[in-house]
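From the methods appendix. Each design record in this collection lists the tokenized structure first, followed by the designed amino acid sequence. Records were kept in a plain field format so they could be parsed without special tools. The example shown here is representative of the layout used throughout.

RECORD:
FOLD TOKENS (251 positions):
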């Protein structure tokens, strides 16, 4: 399916273009190797004598998708697969189940990198104008039991020139939307500011950066404190209390 390769290529192109303007280009390194993804067995951790050992647990081939692509962009891992040709919810949910099984396997092997796993599923060409497929997309994207799921419904083949614009609207919902890329305007005195928030590559940081524009109750200093808290590898159970305290703290 050329749609899957088109999607993977577009993600890679967007990441490489952003890397040229990113404060940390290595955070957007693109690698098309599987990096341990697309395995067929779960990695099950069991505490033994105070330590941990892994025991692979096989998953039946019929419970996995026929084909998937894997992509690494920085510390993010992306799975790409097809939703099939039938928009019937029964068929779609069966396909989704198999892709989520694959995502669960990959998550089990990826460790912390699994927290940034993204699954993007693709409908058949021409599904962008089909009401049944649009409804199926809504159902699929609500299922985040394993990881975040997005759906791309491509235009018809004869409208291939619109594929990139259509796909961009999906990519704009991923981690490849960068809050640290300021809008440059000719003559803008802030164009070369060195205090522009350089947010980590995650949606929480993007939210904090956006809230900085909301007014005095959430200023840039508070946004910076939120980013520091939300970027921590171990946020902790007291995360809500610390966010409130950071919001109330004096600059």
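DESIGN:
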């Amino acid at each position: 399916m050329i749609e899957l390769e088109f999607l993977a290529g577009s993600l890679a192109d967007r990441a490489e273009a952003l890397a040229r303007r990113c404060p940390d280009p290595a955070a957007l390194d693109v690698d098309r190797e599987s990096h341990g993804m697309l395995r067929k067995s779960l990695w099950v951790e069991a505490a033994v004598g105070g330590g941990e050992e892994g025991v692979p647990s096989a998953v039946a081939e019929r419970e996995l998708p026929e084909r998937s692509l894997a992509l690494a962009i920085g510390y993010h891992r992306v799975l790409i697969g097809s939703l099939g040709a039938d928009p019937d919810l029964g068929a779609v949910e069966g396909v989704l189940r198999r892709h989520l099984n694959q995502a669960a396997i990959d998550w089990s092997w990826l460790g912390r990198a699994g927290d940034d796993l993204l699954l993007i599923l693709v409908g058949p060409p021409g599904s962008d104008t089909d009401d049944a497929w649009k409804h199926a997309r809504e159902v699929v994207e609500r299922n985040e039991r394993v990881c975040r799921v997005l759906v791309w419904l491509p235009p018809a083949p004869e409208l291939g020139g619109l594929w990139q614009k259509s796909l961009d609207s999906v990519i704009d919902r991923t981690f490849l939307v960068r809050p640290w890329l300021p809008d440059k305007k000719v003559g803008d005195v802030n164009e070369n500011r060195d205090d522009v928030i350089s947010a980590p590559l995650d949606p929480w940081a993007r939210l904090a950066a956006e809230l900085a524009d909301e007014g005095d109750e959430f200023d840039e200093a508070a946004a910076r404190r939120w980013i520091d808290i939300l970027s921590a590898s171990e946020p902790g159970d007291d995360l809500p209390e610390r966010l409130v305290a950071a919001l109330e703290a004096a600059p």
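APPENDIX NOTE: The chain has seven helices and seven strands.
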